[in-house]
Records
---
Amino acid sequence: MACEKIPVLVYLIHMATNVEVVKTGTENSMGVLRRFTKRVQGSGILPRVRSIRYKNRNKSPGTRKKMTLKKLNRRKEVDLLIKLGKMVEKNSR
C-alpha cells in the first residue's frame, strides 16, 4: 500500500502556511486527523488568526478629541441637572 500525502494549505489574511501530514501504511484516518490537528496547533496559526480577527483599530487623534469633548460636555450637563435637582446623583460603591 502506498503512503498517501495529504497536503493542506491554511489561508490567513496576509500569508499562507503549509501543514502537511503523511499517512503511514497501517495508520487509520483518525490518527492522521489527530496528527494534523496537533501540527496545526504547534504551528501557531490559530492564535495568529484570532489576534487578527479580534483586533480593534486605534482611534485617530481627531476622533479621540471629539469623543473627549462630548464626554466633558455631557458631564457638565449632568452636574447642572444634579444641582437643579432634576437628576439623582449616583452613589459609587
---
Amino acid sequence: MLGQLGLLLTFQLVGEFVVTSLAIPFPGPLCGMALLLGYLCLRGGPSDKLFAVGSKLVDNLGLLFVPAGTAIVAYGALLARDGVAIIVALFVSTLAAIFISGIVADKVAAGRARIGEGHDRHL
C-alpha cells in the first residue's frame, strides 16, 4: 500500500518538476495526473493494489475540503467583493468541463465501437 501511495506521489512530483522546469502556467499536480493516466493506459489499467489505494483516497476525499472551508473564512472580504464573479466563473467552468467530458467520452465510445466492429469482421 505504501509503495502504491509512493507511486501516486511520484507522479505528482514529476508533474511539478515538468511544469516548473518548463515554466508552463499549468498546475503541477494536474500534469502529474495526466502522466499517471498515460502510464495507466500503457499498462492496461491500475493494479489491484493501486486501485485499493485510490479507492481509500477517494473515500476520504472529504478531508481535503477542510482547507477550502478555512479559505472561505480567511478570504471573506474577497468573497464579499468579488463573490458573484467567482461563483459565475465556477459555474461556467464546471458546465464547460462537464460538456467537454461528455463529448470526449462520446468520441471515445464511438471509436471503441468502430474498433470492435472492425475486429468482428476479421474473425
---
Amino acid sequence: MFTAVIESDLHVGNQYGLANPRLVGDAYRELAKILFDWRVGIIQEVGSIDMHICPAETIDGPGKKSSIEQWTSDLEQQAIHAAELLCMWDCPDYRICYGTKYHTGDESRSEHKVVDKIKLNHNRRADIKDIQRLEIDGVKINVRHKVGASGTPYGKPSQLAKAAVTDILRGAYRNYPGADIYIRAHTHEYTVAGNDMYMAYNNPALEWPLGEYGFNIDRPWYTMGLQKLVIDDGEATIKPYLLKAKLPEEMYANIATNH
C-alpha cells in the first residue's frame, strides 16, 4: 500500500498562512495556533507516508503589492520555515510544483529554495517541476498548480473537468497517455469532478481567508485542509481532511436598543 499526502497553498511568510505560531504577530497568533495544532493532529493520525505531493505556493513571496500582512518578506526565511513545516511529516520523498509568479517571483521562481532546504537541511528527496507526472502502481497522476476559478456556486467542477479533458485530448494529439487522477490547487477550495475516465481534485488550502486576500474573495466556497492519497493494488482513493472554523468577521455584532 502506497500513501501520500497532498498539501498546497501554505503561503509561508503570510500572517494568515501556515506558520509556527511563535513567528507571527500577536494579533495573528490565535488563528495560527488553530491551524498549526489541527495540522499536527492530522500528521499524528495519518502517520508515516511514502510521498508528499505539493501543488505549489509553499511560500508567500516578496509581497509585491503589500507586505504589511507578512511576518517576513525574506524569501530565504520563508523557504527555511516552509521546509521545516513540510518535513514535520515522516516522509522520504517530496514532489512540488511551481506556483504563480506573483508568489514565487517573476524571474527566479523562488520555490526551488524550498526544495534546496528539504534536501540540504533535512536530507530528504525533493523535486520541483511545473507539472508533476507520477505513475504509482499503474495509477497515473497529473499534478499542476493553476486551474480556473468560478464565481458561480456550481461552476468549479467544470473548471476541473476542462483541465483534465484538455490534457487527455492534448495527450491523444501528442501521443502521451492521459492521467487517471488530476490534482490542482490555486483557488483554495475543495472540489471533485470526474467520470469513468478520470477523477480531478482541487486541493484545499492552508491559509486563512482573511486580510486583503480574503476580503477580495467573492465566491461561496473556501476550504482549508489537505488530502490523503492511498493506492492499494492499483486502486486509488483520496480522503480529504478539512478544517472547519468560525471566522471572526462572520460574527454578528449584537446591538442593544432602547425602547
